[in-house]
Every structure is written in C-alpha cells, then in structure tokens.
Amino acid sequence: MTDDIDRILAQWAAERPDLDTEAMGVFGRIFRLARLAGDATERAYAMFGIARADFDVIATLRRSGEPFQLSPGALAASMMLSTGGTTARLDRLEKAGLVARSPDPDDRRGILVRLTPKGHALADEAVTAGLAEQQRLLSRLSPEQASQLTALLRELLDGV
Hints:
This protein is mostly helical. It has helices at residues 4-15, 22-46, 52-63, 72-79, 83-95, 117-138, 143-158; strands at residues 69-70, 99-104, 107-115.
C-alpha cells in the first residue's frame, strides 16, 4: 500500500538518492494526519456553533474542575496562548453566554473567567462529539496498535 507521501519520497529518491527521507515520511504523515483530524474535529465543534479556538477555552475551564474558573493568565498559560490572544476569545464567548468574567475576590486588580451553566453543557456536548470523531479516525487501528502509536508518539515528543 502506498500513499501520496510515498510518491513524494520516491521523487526525492530519484532526484537525490543521497538523502535519507525517512523522517520526511514520518513527519509528512503526522502533519497531514493532524490537519485532517483537526478539520474533522473542527466540523464536529461547528455543529455547536463554536470554533476550535472557542472549544479550547471552554474545555480548559471545564477540565479545570469545580468551580470551573481560572484567571485569564492561568487560562492563557494552560492553552499556551498570549493573554492578548485570549482576550478576543473571551469577549466572543462572554457575548455568547458561555463564560462570565467577575472580580477576583483574592486580588483587587484581577478577574476570574468562569464557565457558565450554558458553557458547561456545551463543553460536555462538544468534547463528546470531538472525541467521537477522533475515535472514528483512529478506528482503523486495533486497540493494541493505537496503544503502540501513543507510546511511540509520547517517546518522540519527550525527545523534542
């Protein structure tokens, strides 16, 4: 069985037989898979009227546990974003009634971002739909293969 990546590697082998293109094959497939999986997951979130960026915020608050609130700085750090990038998302989500901002009782200058009941319900529905889509994509592998792939990717990431 061959794929588009194999054809690309064959072209490089013909033009530059001196190159070891194994890494190109691995990462080319990872990049394509990430894009395809991201697009499929994005479509699942769109059924709920949210984009992946919106999901990232409400999911971060949802998985933070009771009381499902964080400071904007902690939220941004958890999502690996700048606080400026987080502000636009929060404005949009607050307008949609999915999050609410309130003064931080422990810091007069700070605020807390809290998941609303509507946001909590939407986060639960969206994570279920997104996971179903990801599981559908992974279903081509046996459970043992999926576990092996997880272990290999973890090991690869640990070395980066």
